[in-house]
Structures are given as structure tokens and as C-alpha cells.
Amino acid sequence: MTNREERTIEGLNRFTSWLAARRGVPILIGILLVVLNFIVQFIPGLGWLADVDLLLHLGIVFGLVGILVAIAIG
């Protein structure tokens, strides 16, 4: 293996260890993004962001992936 591959594997191992201790963090981030999408609708300069519901979609995807990862990690 190359040095870059070893660093990537080491980084993923550290990330999964961190995530195993804090399984609810991705779900909370997803909820926060959904709430931010609701708040953005009332800010006049960010109407385009509310029109495409970018934060809403990112929040839903992030929350679902967080649930799946939490189940997989155990």
C-alpha cells in the first residue's frame, strides 16, 4: 500500500471510532439543516436557497445516512 492509502485508512478508522462514540451527531446535524432551511425562507437575500430547498435535501440525506451508519456501527 502507498502512504496515501495508509493515511486514508487511518483517517477512516479514527472517524468511525469517533462516530461510534457519538452516534447521534449526524442525525442532529441533519435536523439542524432542516431547521435552517425553514429559517432561510424568511431571509430576503437568500430566497434562491429556499427555492431549491438545498438545506432541506442535505439535511434529509445527512440524517438518513447518520441513521444507517449508527445502525451499522452498533
| CA-CA gap between termini | 29 Å
Q: C-alpha Rg, in Å?
A: 16 Å
Multimer state: single chain
Secondary-structure content class: mainly alpha
Q: Provide mean pLDDT, rounded.
A: 88
Q: What's the β-strand tally?
A: 0
- Specify the biggest β-sheet: none
Shape: elongated
Percent range for β-strand residues: under 5%
Written as H for each helix and E for each strand, in order along the chain, the element string is: HHHH
Low-confidence stretches: none
Helix content: over 70%
Structure description:
The protein has a domain at 23-73. The protein is built from four helices and no strands. The protein has helices spanning 3-21, 25-40, 47-52, 54-73. The mean pLDDT is 88.
Task: Please write out the topology.
Elements: H1 3-21, H2 25-40, H3 47-52, H4 54-73
Brief overview, please?
The protein has four helices and no strands.
Descriptive keywords:
74 residues; mainly alpha
